Amino acid sequence: MKKSLKEVKAGYPPEKRGSDPLWVKMIVRQLSFFLAWMAIRLNISAFTVSIVSLLFPIIAMIFWLNSLPLIAIILLMSWLLLDCVDGNVARAMGGTMMGAFVDAASGYAMIGFSFFGLGAYLDIIHPNMFSSGIAGFTLLGATISILNLLARLYFQKYLNVLSNSNSAGDAGMGNDKGLLKIIDKNVGVGGFFTPFLLIAYYVEMLIPVLILYGIYTLVYFTGVTWKLMLRSRK
Known about the structure:
- This protein is an all-alpha fold.
- It has helices at 5-10, 14-19, 22-41, 46-65, 69-93, 97-125, 136-162, 165-170, 179-187, 193-202, 206-232.
């Protein structure tokens, strides 16, 4: 059954609207409604959109490695857009468990490849920048990706071990009111990360962006791990 653009927008729940990062709320979500409407008219399922979004961070990695950063950044920005589109389509036309899984996997792929790719690109254009003989930016990017993924893995393990989502919410990651959650959703890959990258590319400040995200990720990982350990004692 076809849906009008108004119906696609109406299917967006208030609680989801309130939890969107500012960048998504201001720009991305509005565009995603139109693209979701087009996808529905073309009989493109939410699962198909999720599969495409899953591939974007991987393809972007190829462009990072071939010193084509602008294309890589555009692909990462497109991932964020498609991450909104598939949800819109699923709410309007119905989704599947497999689609939800691929959607989650897409987010992990974004975290895993985006920082790693940026670091690898910086080492390509600044070989041996600190005369250490070590691909330092690649190592930093990989560490950011690993710590981001570990924080989420620890959280999932916490849920599995305790089987208590209410406690998880108190840990700051399980609900949208936790301080760590609010910061991460706005600073992380689902928030201002991609527009930050685009601006940094044009003002030639990709190195400071990677370093700042390295500091932020270390603080975030430490905070999440500490909170989960404290909650696990109860």
